[in-house]
Amino acid sequence: MDFAEFVLSRTPALLRFAYLLTGDRHLAEDLTQEALVRVHRRWTHIVHEHGPEAYVRKTILHQYLSWRRRLSSSELPSPYLPERADPQLFDEDILGRDEMWTLLATLPRAQRAVVVLRYYEDLADPDIARLLGCTAATVRVHAFKALKRLRAVLAPLAATGDRDG
């Protein structure tokens, strides 16, 4: 598969993945675009040595985990409006209906990444550990803490019957 085919076929899934991590449509688009630019430079090597999908997701994940370290001053505002994104590529309405979305936004980055990778991307702990550069035990600790925090928020809502926040 060449790079253009990959981008056309996988961008919607990559955007959803980035959106679940960031909770911000524009940041998700930025992370996805930046990851694709980085991957494009080494596309031939990546296709032959790695699975391109997993490699791009890992690149997005690393961008997400380190975005605070980037200097925001390196980005300059533009006097021109950007072109509008294709609504079929990113169905925010579907993601917005997910009640867990607002709860995910309250988690620390590493915990949120583990929850997204485990429950939304259906990855096993060893695979998540490889992506995050940690041990499977650390992944389980992050998952445990994240679920404990989510349960603490959900328990009062379930007790009162108020599921709308």
Describe the protein's architecture and organization.
This protein has 165 residues and is mainly alpha-helical. The protein is built from 9 helices and no strands. The protein has helices spanning 3-22, 25-41, 43-49, 52-66, 92-96, 100-104, 109-120, 125-132, 136-160. Helix 1 runs antiparallel to helix 2 (25-41), helix 1 (3-22) packs parallel to helix 4 (52-66) and helix 7 (109-120) crosses helix 9. The radius of gyration is 17 Å and the shape is globular. The model has no long low-confidence stretch (mean pLDDT 80).
In oligomeric terms, what are we looking at?
Answer: single chain
**Major beta-sheet overview:** none
Global structural class: mainly alpha
Tell me the number of helical segments per DSSP (H or I, 4 or more residues long): 9
Strand proportion, as a percent range, falls in: under 5%
> Which percent range fits the helix content?
55-70%
Q: What topology emerges from the helices and strands here?
A:
Layout: H1 3-22, H2 25-41, H3 43-49, H4 52-66, H5 92-96, H6 100-104, H7 109-120, H8 125-132, H9 136-160
Summarize, please.
By secondary structure, the protein is mainly alpha-helical. It contains nine helices and no strands.
Write out key terms for the chains shown:
single chain; 165 residues; mainly alpha; 9 helices; 69% helix; 0% strand; globular
